Each structure stands twice: as C-alpha cells, then as structure tokens.
Amino acid sequence: MKPVILLVEEDKDFREALVASLKASHYQVVCTTPEQVEEVFRKMLPDLVVLGLDFSKNESRKSARELPALADSFSVPLLMLVQNLPEQLSSSDKALMEKFNQVLVRPFSVAELPGKIEELLARRFYSGGRKILDPVTGLPGYEEFREQIGYLFSFARRYRRHFSLIMAQLENRAEIEAAGEEKRKRLLQEVAGKLRQSVRNLDLVMRYGPAEFAILLPMTGNSGLKTVVRRLEHSISRITVKFLDGKQLSARLIFGGAAYSPQRKSPNEIFILAQQHIHLKRQRWQQKKAAEKA
Description:
CATH topology of the largest domain: Alpha-Beta Plaits
CATH superfamily of the largest domain: Reverse transcriptase/Diguanylate cyclase domain
Largest sheet: 5 strands, parallel
Distance between the termini: 45 Å
Radius of gyration: 23 Å
CATH architecture of the largest domain: 2-Layer Sandwich
Strand order of the largest sheet: 2-1-3-4-5
Helix content: 40-55%
Low-confidence stretches: none
Shape: elongated
Number of helices: 10
Strand content: 15-25%
Structural class: alpha/beta
CATH class of the largest domain: Alpha Beta
C-alpha cells in the first residue's frame, strides 16, 4: 500500500508536474478541487495533503482555512505550495500559513517535493522517540524500537494502514566476536550503513541487539514485505569488510519479516512472527550445510 497524497492544485501544468514527480517516488496521488477537498478527504483519508494556495483567489483561501481543522482530527500533515504571495501579509494570512506543517513558496524545484513529503510522513508514522542512538552504529536502539513499533501499531489500527517489520540477524556472531572489538565495530557499522542504503528514507532502521537489527516499513503490506526481504537477501545477505592488515571479516545476515494485520493483538505478535521466520530459515540453512558435508 502506497502512501496516499491528496493534491489540491488548480494550475494544470504545475499539477501534472507534481503528479509525475510524486508517482515516480511511489506515492499514490489523488487530485481534487478546492470545492471538493473536504468530500474527497473524508472518502480517501489521505496520509498527507498538498494544497496549492494562490493568494490572488478567494476560493483558494477558503479551502486553506477549512483544511487544518479537518486534517488535525485525523493527524494528517499539511503542505502548502504558495504562489502570488503578497509583499505584505495580513495577520490572518500569517495565522493561516502557520497552521500548515510546511510552506513552500513558488518557484521551487519539483524534485524537492518527495523529500519534503518523506520528512512530514515520518513525523506522522513515528513518535517523537527518545532519540537515544547506539554508540557503535549511530542507529536508534532497542528502547526506540519498542516505542516506535508500538506507536506504528496503534497508528495502523486507528487509521487502517499497513506496516511491516523486518528483523536481520548476524548468523556468524561467534566468528565476528572472535575477530576483536575494533573489527567487530567496523563490521557492524558497515552492516548498519548497507541496511540504511537498501530501504526507503521513510523506513526506520534500528539496532535491536548485539547481533540483530530491525527495520520498520510504514505503508507496506505482506506483498511489499516479501519484495523487500527478497531484495535484501539478494543484495546484502553477506557483507565483507577488508582491513589494512590484509584480513577481512564478513557478516552473514538472515532476514525474517512479518506484516501487520487487524487480527494481530499486539506489536509483540508481529515481532515473534518475524523471529519465527528467521528461525525457520536458519534451520533450512543448517540442514543444507549438513547435507553438503554428508
């Protein structure tokens, strides 16, 4: 399931450019008019609203005034795209703009928009968090994971959205520990970097434990989860770091995932299911190794 962006923009050429950019960034875009924005909003329940505000048109102002209260009731962020901004803003116009989460004044590069939207969506999908980072990898740690999966679980249940969890375990932990502290840290940093590069900016990579990482994927159902897991297994199931002394150290990663569904009673059920998938994959891998030696 892709994040749904409700776009209200009357400038046809600009609207088409926005739609093309957002769809290329894997968003679902629904366009509407200022007159129909409330009706479409209640029908679609979007994840974010992008409103083009032309200060020279009263109707544009009217929809801008009505949107904040509606969006606030569903915790939906608002992005305003302004044109014909007067040199002197009235106090009411200033107050109006302050009700939006972010304001961009035209002209600006359309290529900037997907990144801005990712930032706003991250604020919606995740709680403020404790922001305690793991000192080795620089990733959020265990406490942040527990908080964020709980928040995302409640969000998915309340707004009928999808999310998935991927756990990644280092299979050869004993070998990595035996290599020494400095090499272990360097390898963990490489693993963290590869995981971060392999998923969307919207996804949250965390260090769950000494040899385990967690990835939260908002707006990702079971089909999308399987696609991401396959891609990770294909691209980074083995990560190697070469050192100045000529030696090298590798990490073998096993991935297991689980998707939210309304039948899940708690975030822990999703976590346990992901761990079970890892356990089954480890068993298959060990059986394969045993068969090769036989």
